[in-house]
Amino acid sequence: MDDTRQLSGKAAIAGVGLSRFGRVPGTSAMGFALEASAAAIADAGLAKSEIDGVLVLMPPQMGEQHGWASRVAVHLGLAPAFCSTMDMGGATAIGMMQTAAALVHAGICKAVLCAFGAQTNPQGILPTMFGSQFAIPYGDVGAMPFMAHVGRRQMHEIGITSEQYGAIAVAFRKHASRNPLAQKRDPMTLADHQASRWIVEPLHLLDCCLVTDGGGAIVVTSTERARDLRHGAAKLAGFGQVHSSEIVHPDRHEAGIGGGREAGEQAWRMAGLGPADVDVVQFYDGFTPLVVHSLLVYGFCRPDEVGAFVAGGELEFDRGRLPANTAGGLLSEGHLSGFNHVAEAVRQLRGTSTSQVPDVEVSMVTGYGGAPHEAPPTVAYTVAILTR
To answer: Most exposed residue of 16, 115, 244, 249, measured as fewest CB within 10 angstroms of its CB?
Structure first.
């Protein structure tokens, strides 16, 4: 038996919390992390004294400041037995949950807080990307040009169209329009998507995620302890991660699909489930091509069917075979580095989503991060399978 199966269902998410988010000047990254953490602890119904582990995502704009997780713990009045600052970009929320589950299973911690906060307009900080000297002369700087390359490759290899990307954005905006906290709630049509300005061809403005100030937090504890708390247990049935060199070594992956498959296979194996068992999924949707990529690598679609799948409304919560990003995702709810995806996955299991899918038993979340647009390029994929 796969050794990871012994962790399946042993840990659970007991609480989730989001700070205020959107365009929120005047609050620091630390302030957002503390606000979300307090909300998650309250949601769990745990006393602060019961939190003995703290994992925090290092804000990308903060420069070199060691011990970020310890600083969050001190501000919260905690004295954790285990404390670590983590950074896998948008893959970190699920990576934290995986680490927290291992800490709980090993008996090192009883309850672990996983947190994040970011202020996108900090004063006096000028972020510098590693390897930028190789990219700036060509104007190929940042995530949007990189994802435009991914989109062009999908168009060339499997025939994806801009209109099919647009169908993804329209579906997620439909969900966001029902979410009173979403940054973008105005209805969107496919014509609106096609008329939005180019950012980097083939990406329109509405193919790209939002800019968001805010924070998120998750409390992970044992399944037994979670059952006694306010909302019961959202069990961590399976998880996986892989750090891919697909950009440097594209020949290692099936044509038209790309990296990340191993993370999904780990999670499916651990949970004893497969793509057909998923009731609702929260895809990391920094850009619409990433959703297409996820549908392929995690086994939901073949390359020859994925375009028709998204164009046919199969991602919509009220009529699709695979309801996805039911709070609006990074494209329309807000970019909270995937913490809002975890919160929505938990809400679906609790039955409290604003775009609730009936009778949810299996809720999936994906993460995408690393530094694919820096040198050397790396990509981090994470997957979590949550069950009732």
So the answer is: 249
Short-list 268, 269, 244, CA closest to 257:
244
* Rounded-to-integer distance, Cα 336 and Cα 334, Å: 6
pTM listed for this prediction: 0.90
Exposed, middle or buried by CB within 10 Å (0-12, 13-18, 19+), for 126?
Answer: exposed
pLDDT digits (tens, 9 = 90+) for 197-225: 999 999 999 999 999 999 999 999 999 99
Which residues lie across from 382 on neighbouring strands?
241, 367
Measured CA to CA, the distance from residue 68 to residue 61 in angstroms comes to 13
What does the buried/exposed string (b/e) look like for 236-247 if buried means 16 or more CB atoms within 10 Å of the residue's CB?
A: bbbbbbbbbebb
Q: Quote the CA–CA distance of 310 and 158 in Å, as a whole number.
A: 14
CATH topology of domain 3-122+212-234: Peroxisomal Thiolase; Chain A, domain 1 (3.40.47)
**Chain region(s) in the chain for CATH 3.40.47.10:** 3-122+212-234, 134-183+236-387
The Cα–Cα gap between 1 and 247 comes to 33
Task: Determine whether 79 is exposed, middle or buried from the number of CB atoms within 10 Å of its CB (0-12, 13-18, 19+).
Answer: exposed
* 134-183+236-387: CATH superfamily: Thiolase/Chalcone synthase (3.40.47.10)
Sign of CA dihedral 96, 281, 378, 369: negative
- CB atoms under 10 Å from CB of 342, counted, come to 28
Query: In this structure, is the dihedral angle defined by the CA atoms of residues 180, 181, 184 and 189, taken in order, positive or negative?
Result: negative
Quick one: pLDDT band at residue 232, thresholds 50, 70, 90?
confident
